[in-house]
Amino acid sequence: MSQYLTPQGLYYTQDHAWVQVEGDKIRIGMTDFMQKLAGEITFIRIPRVNKNLAAGTTLCSIQSGKWAGKVKVPMNGTVLESNSALTTNPKLLNEDCYGTGWICVLQPDDLTAALTELLHGDEADRFFTEEHAKHVKPK
Amino acid sequence: MMLYRLGMLPWQETQAMYHTLAEAGQEALVLCRPDARYVCLGFHDDLEQEVNRPYCSQYNIPLIRRETGGGMVLLDKDQIFFQLILHKDNPLLAGRRDQFFQRFLGPAVAALGDFGLKADIQQPADILVNGRKISGNGAGDINGYAVYIGNLLLGFDRSTMANIFQAPNPALCQYAEKSMEQYMTTMSEELGYIPLAEQVEEQLLFHFRQWIPDLVIAKDYSALKDSLAKTAERLMSAQMLSLPGKKIKMRNIKIKEDVFVRLNRYDDGRHRGSAIMLIEDGVIRYFDAADMEILQQENMLPLAPYLTGASWSEAGVRRAVQHWREAHNSKFSQLDCELLIQWVVEGITQEVE
Q: B92 and chain A: CB distance < 8 Å anywhere?
């Protein structure tokens, strides 16, 4: 694993989704760490708009080589928008995972409460440092 | 870590097992084989695009979808499955997910060596003997567990596999079968006899133990039976089978890493047709445009000899088409060479959607 980006100001889940708060909504994507762990992503099954999702269930699945990975839903809510550009160009997940490679916009059921369950700031930094240590080189 | 050496199982349990263990939060190595043939879709395969469902119905070949990657495959009792379920934080998993195949496939490579078969890994995840694929593999994330699955082919029914491919042109299935003869092999074909499944399992297990010494034999898996039944039901459900998959504009059948057979469709508004191609390591090895009337006109030289051996790239195909065109002294101007190049490289013409 090479170095990875973890922008400040975002919230993170332990399975490597990022969450950006936009008013009373959230935008979700996968972390740089996860896209590097996955390698070249060739397909994504994006979430359906208007679908109600429970935290911890599958938000989307990705394919890289023969690996099928998943990103989990960070908090209960309803999908308002999905990034359809990813269906024709999944490489955006590798190239710009915090920008044009966003996955969906969610209307959370209870944003304030849900944010307390996510990693943020120093806590997120510590988590990613530990994650990196686990994957830095094969043992 | 638990070891489930299960021998022959009801076919659906050979897929349900590793899903169930991951969902139950149990790290394990599973060795098993199915008691009947079935078709298993990869997590992101599109059912309608990949599978000839009428054929499967006619011959009572059931369908199931797994939550791991890799493509649609025919599985049967002549294949030995090895499945490793590791928690995502297990230190064995360090590194990129696709790079872990190198380690996961090590015991299978060594087991083949025990039978005198020199095997190599073709990255990311094929095992080759004498340059031909002898094992299929995939991996995925299930409930926070990394699951790696593989098989060793004792035998393989290429004819049935070819018939299972959904294809708009039967010639594509025939050529896919021929390509599987060329690029795939089995232990029985390499050895000249059918090895005992138990012996192959024994060697697999021996080499897995060299890598993972703390395997504890599970004496019984009956406690999992209810969960297995529920998992199998879910994996075989209409909802699971019809999950949206990766759509491609032209039919493309992967035979092994870097080898695929494809059907290119041509439509310039006046003429229609198709071609079957085999691409190996980025080189066109076979080209057959038998139903392209525009290429079958009197006195027209066949295009295939010009394309065969050409790089499957715009530059390579352009060179080949230009040589072909020069051989005709530009006699056939009605054929748009740019469209022809696009068709060979991209598999479609713009008019086809």
A: yes
